[in-house]
Amino acid sequence: MSVVAVLGMKGPFPRLIDALSTWAARHRDEDVWVQYGAQVPPPGLDGATKVPRALLLSKLVDADVVVVHGGSGAILDAIRAGHAPVVVPRRARFGEHVNDHQLEIVDAMKDRVVPCLCPEDPTSFERAIDAARALRRTGRTYRDPLEGPLRELLGRLFEKSPRPRTRHVWSVLDALTRNVRVEHRSSLSDP
């Protein structure tokens, strides 16, 4: 399989579906498979609404290039499968999400992903796919942030039953954020 795209289950994402369809039409020798979620199946592309997690992870590992929406779970799955994925964040102004938090996720992970903010521009989308493919070929690896002490801490935390676990999580969050000043921003602002 050549390109695997994960659009999630949030709702329609026509900008990315159109970009994938356009790209696939220009690259007929490439296979494109799309997990398209809660929308009309993409014309001319293979895929499924929803697939079992194990099958999706297998497809990610086998892919040459992975394209995902800007959700942190999809991004981390692609990274753990050995990719620097092309990430197209859902945008509020296009009605793809309720706010632009996916832009913030992409910005926070920009050193591990290939951002594509304008998939409707075929040249921009093509460059992003080429960059992701080149990074895959170089064997660029990603160190799991949950290695070592953090993984051990989380393991101990989940040994607790839900109620003590919740109290413990809140006490840790309180300690970590006690002296943090909060800056409020409008979720309607456009970068």
Label this structure with key terms:
191 residues; alpha/beta; Rossmann fold; six-stranded parallel beta sheet; 7 helices; 6 strands
SSE topology:
Blueprint: E1 3-6, H1 14-26, E2 32-35, E3 46-48, H2 53-62, E4 65-69, H3 72-80, E5 86-88, H4 101-108, E6 114-115, H5 122-137, H6 149-157, H7 162-177
Number of helices: 7
Radius of gyration: 18 Å
Q: At the third CATH level, what is the topology name of the largest domain?
A: Rossmann fold
Mind telling me the CATH superfamily name of the largest domain? Glycogen Phosphorylase B
Helix percent reads 40-55%
Average residue pLDDT: 81
Tell me what you see in this structure.
This protein is of the alpha/beta class. It has helices at residues 14-26, 53-62, 72-80, 101-108, 122-137, 149-157, 162-177, and strands spanning 3-6, 32-35, 46-48, 65-69, 86-88, 114-115. 29% of the residues are buried. The protein has two domains: 3-137, Glycogen Phosphorylase B (Rossmann fold), CATH 3.40.50; 146-179. The protein has seven helices and six strands. 42% of the residues lie in helices and 11% in strands. Strands 3-2-1-4-5-6 form a six-stranded parallel β-sheet, with helices on both faces. The chain starts with a strand and ends in a 14-residue tail after the last helix. Strand 4 (65-69), helix 3 and strand 5 (86-88) form a beta-alpha-beta unit.
